[in-house]
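Before our next group meeting I need something from you. Please put the record directly below this note.
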Amino acid sequence: MKVIVVALLVLMTVSLRAEKMTIDAHSVVINKLEKALSLTGKNHVKKQSLYRRLGDLYSERARLYFLRETQDNCTKCIQSKSDRTVAISYLKKAIKRARPLEKSRMLLQVAHLYKVLPNERLRKITLLSLNKHSKRKSQKSYIAISEYELSEINYNNNQYKKAIKGYKSAFMNLNKNKRAMALYKIAWSQMNIGQIKEAVKSLKYILKSKSYLSNNGVYNKPFHVDVSRDLVTFMARRPIYKKEIIEIESLSPRGVVLDNLFYLAEETQRTGQWRSSLRVWDYYLLLKDHDASTRLEVSVRKAQIYYFIKNKKQALKHYRESLALWGNGSCLKECASIEIKFKNFIILWHKDIKNRSDKYFLIAINLYLAHFKKESGIFYIAAMQSKKSKAWGKAIDNLKMAIVKSTKSEAKLRRASLVEMISIAEGSNNSNLKRSTYEAYLNLEPKSKIKSEILYQLYYLDYEKKKYKLSAENFYKLTADKNIKNKLLIKSSDLALSSLVFLKEDTKILSRAPVLSSKVPSRRVKYIKLARDACYNISLSILSKKEKLTSDINGSLKCLNIYSYSDLKTREKVKYIETKINLSALILDHNSIEKYAKDILNIKGVNQKESNYALERILFVSELKFKFKKAYKTLLKIKVSKVKRADQQLKLGMLAELSGYNSKKHYKSFIKMTKSRYKANEIRIHLALKSKYPWKELSNIKGVLLKTPSLLASALLETFGRFKNFKRAEEFTKYKSIRNTVEGRVLFREGFINSYDIKIKPLLRSVIGTSSNYLISKGVKRRIALLNGMEKYLKLKLPKKDVLSQAYALGRLASEYRRFTDEFIKLPMPKKLTKDQKKKYLENVKRKLAPYNDRMKSILMLSNKIWSHIDNINSQFSLLKRSTYHQKIVIRSQLKKLISQAPVRRQRLIKFRLVKLGEISKPNLKKAWSVVKSNPLDLKLLNNLRGQMTYQYNNSLYGYLSVREQLVKGVIR
C-alpha cells in the first residue's frame, strides 16, 4: 500500500509540474519512479502507468537535452539520443497492456522518437503497426496520421506516386493545417513526375483557399509566399502570356508581387522562352514600385533577349538606354552583376560575328568603351579589330591590356589573348616586336602550356645573334620542361649542345649530353659522341696542367670508361686509350694501365710504334709489380732501333736473371753491342762473379778488366772475401793501377801481411834455452840473426806507399826487439859470482843490450808516428762502411790485425769505432725483396733492397734498381 501511495503522489506531482520542470527535476522524478517501479510487483496494476510515465519523462528530458546540445553546438553529446532510446523501451512495455486509444497515441510517440533518432526503418515499421491497429479499432484520425507520415517517408525517398496516393487517402481525415501541407506535397510530387498542369492546379487550389493559408485561424504569410513562389516555378515551364502574368500577380501576397514577377521573368529567360520573358519584363516595368537599379537591370536583360532573338537594332537600343541609366548613377545595388551583363553582351556579340564586320556591334563596342574602359574582354575585341587593320603593335598592346585586366574567371579570354598576341607578333616578322611580345607573354602567363614554345622562340633570337653562352643555358633549361613537345625538345637539345660546342665548354657538354640523350633517344648516338669528345678534351687539359687533382683524374677516367670506341678509326681509338693510360699512371692505377695497354694490342691495324707503346706500358707495370717473368717476355716483344738494342739486351739480361732464366746470352749480346767499356766490364765482372770459379774467370779476362781498375779492384776484393787465394790476388796486385785503388790497396796489404806473418813465424817461435851456457849463447845468436834477417826483409819488401802495412810490420818487429831484451835480462847469471862480479856482469849486459833497445825505440817511434795520422784509419773505416759483405769480412779482419800493433790510445779508438759499426750482418736478399714487393713504390724500401744488392756485390741488379728508382720517382711525381 505504501508503494502504491508513493507512486500516486509522484504521478500527481509530475502531472502538476511537468511543463515547468528542468532537466535536474526530470532526473529526480525519473529516479523516484524507477525506484518505485523496482518495488512494484510484477503484475501490479500500477506498473503499466509507471512505464508510460517514465517513457514520457525520458522523452521530455531528451528534448531538453537536445535543446541544450544544440545551443552548445555539441556534436559528440549523446544524452538526448540515449534518453530517447530508453523512452522507446519504456513505451514499448507500456504498449503491450495499453488501451486501444492509448496504444495508438504511444505508437505515434514511438514513431516520432524514431524519426528524431533517426531510424527510418523502425519508424516505418511502427507507423505500419499504428495504421494496422487504427484500422482494426476504426480510429480514423490515427489512420490518417499514420498514412500521412508514411507518405512523408515515401516523398523523402523520391517515391512520388506512392506519396500522392498516401496523401490523398489521408487528406479527408487530417486537420486543415495538415491538409494544406498534404496538398502542397501532392503538388511537388506531381511536378517531379512531370504532371505540371495538375501540379499548377494543386497550388492554385491552396492559394485560392483562405483556410489553407491560415494556421489555427491565423493567416500564414510565409506559407503563402512559398506556395506563390513555387507556382511561378511551375508556370515558367510553359509559355507565359498576359493572362498568366495577371493571375500570378493576383495570387501573390502583398509585398511579394514584384519579386514573383521578377522571378518569373528570370525563369522564362533561363528556360529559353525569350518572348515570354519579354512580356513579363514589359509588364514588370509598367508597375511603379521598383527602383532605378532594378529598372537598369531589366533594361540590360531586355537588350540581351533582343540580341538572342536576332533583333540587333532593338538590342542596341536597349543597350544604349541601359548604359545611359548606368551613367546617370541609377545602379544602387548588385552593380557588379549588372556590369558583368554589360560585358557579356559585348563578348557574346563578338563571338557570334567572329571575323565578320557588324556596324551595330561597332556602335555597341564604342558605347561600352565609353563607360567601361578597363574591361579585359573589350581590350581583346579592340585587339582583334586592330589585327584586321594590320596595326600589329596596337593590336598587341590591346591584348596585353586584356591579359593584365583579366580575372581568374576569364581564363579562356586570357588564353585567347595570349595566343593572338604570339600569332600577331610572329606574323609581323619584326624581331624586336617578337622579343618584346615573347617576354610580355612569359611575364603575363608564366605557367602557360605553350610556355616552352615561347621560350624556344625567344632563345632562338639569341642564338641567331650568336649569343651562344646565353642560348646554351636557356635551351638546356628548356629541355627540363616536363610539358615540352618532342619535336621542340629535339630542337632545343640540339641547339643547347651546339652552343656549347661553339663555346668549347667541354665540362658542360659532358654533364648535359647524357641527360639530353636520355630525353631524346633519337639523338642518343650523336649526343654520346659529343660527350665522348668532351670527355677526351677534358682529359687532355688535365694532363697538360702542372697541378693535377686526384679527383679530377678519377673523374676523367670514369668518364672515358663509360663510352664505346667501336665507331672510331684505329688511330683515334689508340689516342683515347693512350689518354686513359696516362691518366691511370698519374693515380698509380697499374692494373688499369695494363688493361688499357692490352686493349691497344687487341685493336686491329695498330702500327709498330703503337704496339711498342702498349708493350712498354705492360713492361712498366710488370716491373713495378716485380713480375719479372712477365716483364722479360714483354720486353722480348718490343722491337727497338739499333741504337737502343744494347740497352734492351742489358735489361733483358737483368730481367732474365731476376726471373730465373738464362741471362748470360743477353749479357754477352750487350757486351758486343755496347760502346761503353765501363758498362761492358761491369757485366763481364758480374758474369765472372756468378760463375763457379770467379778467380779463373777474372784471370781469363784480366787484360780487358785492367782498363777499368776501380771495377776490377772492387771485384777482386769481393772474390778474395768469398774465396781467399793469396796467389791469385798477388797475380792482380802486382799491377800498379790495381794497387792505386782503395780496394786494391787493401788486397795488396792483405797479401803483404800474410807473407810477413809467414816470414816472422821463426822469430816468433825462437826461444833462448837457459839450461846451459851453450844453449843461452846459441839462442841469443839465433835471435839476433832472425831480427837482423827481418830488418833486411823489411828493407826489401816493406810497401813504401802503404803506411798501415809499415805500421803493422814495424810494430811487430819492435815487439820482438822488446821480447828479446826482456828475455836477455832475465837470463840466469853465472854461479859463484861475487857482488862486484855480479855488478860488472849486469853493467856488461846493459851495454850489450843498449843498441837493441835503441833500435826498438826508433822502430816504435816510427810506428807511432804513422799511427798518429788519423786519416790513415779514416780511409779504412770509410771503405768499411761502403763495402760489401765479403769485403767487410776482409777489411774488418785486417783492421783487427792492424790495431794489435797500434798504440793503446789508438787501439781504444779503433775498437770503439768497430763496436759502433756493429758486427757484420749476413745479407738477407729474399727478405728485402719480399718487403719491397709488399710496397713497390716505397723509395726507402727500394733503397734498402739496392743496399742489399751492393752488400752482396750484385752490381748488375744494383744498376737495374737504380733505373727502377728513377722510374718510381717519375710515377710518384
Summary: The longest strand covers residues 214-215. DSSP finds 50 helices and two strands in the chain. Residues 835-868 form the longest helix (34 residues).
